[in-house]
Specification:
Elements (H helix, E strand, L loop, with lengths): L50 H4 L2 H25 L6 H13 L3 H21 L2 H29 L11
């Protein structure tokens, strides 16, 4: 998806609301729709590059390539951290946030993820869901404690290595 047009300084933006009769987004700040304010994020979609970068097509494309490469490096580092120790998902979403400074598709993905996390948080805080989660946690802990007790009763406390032999 191309986030800009062929005209220097013009960036594509998606509006969160209906446009006014005169072509403006009807926002209280009097913007003309190039950078609309949405309820969800407070900022419109599109490039966050400085104006002097957006004004020159070659500079803007090189800026986008740089942002993409840096974001890709961070996302790849996060994917590597998934099986290894480290905050893999946090780093992946950090790379997505880097991409979201320049690419509309990444902004939309981050908004979707944020909305889903907020919905899941609200569902988890509902009293009946909390009671169910607490009950399942207690049942799980009882099962683990029973398994550990059976293991200790059957085998005792024996280390898997022998310190005396060394």
């Amino acid at each position: 998806m191309n986030t800009g047009s062929d005209d220097p300084g013009e960036v594509a933006a998606a509006s969160g609301g209906a446009a006014g009769a005169d072509g403006t987004d009807g926002g209280a700040d009097g913007t003309d729709g190039a950078e609309p304010n949405t309820k969800e994020s407070g900022r419109g979609l599109g490039s966050r590059a400085p104006e002097y970068v957006k004004a020159r097509r070659a500079l803007h494309v090189s800026w986008q390539v740089g942002v993409f490469v840096v974001g890709l490096a961070v996302v790849v580092a996060g994917v590597v951290m998934l099986p290894l120790p480290g905050p893999g998902w946090v780093v992946i979403f950090g790379g997505m946030a880097i991409w979201a400074t320049e690419f509309v598709w990444a902004q939309l993905v981050l908004r979707w993820a944020k909305r889903k996390v907020t919905e899941a948080t609200q569902r988890a805080l509902e009293p009946e869901v909390r009671r169910r989660n607490i009950t399942l946690t207690v049942v799980g802990l009882v099962i683990v404690a029973a398994l550990v007790g059976i293991y200790l009763w059957k085998f005792g406390v024996v280390m898997p290595w022998k310190i005396k032999d060394q």
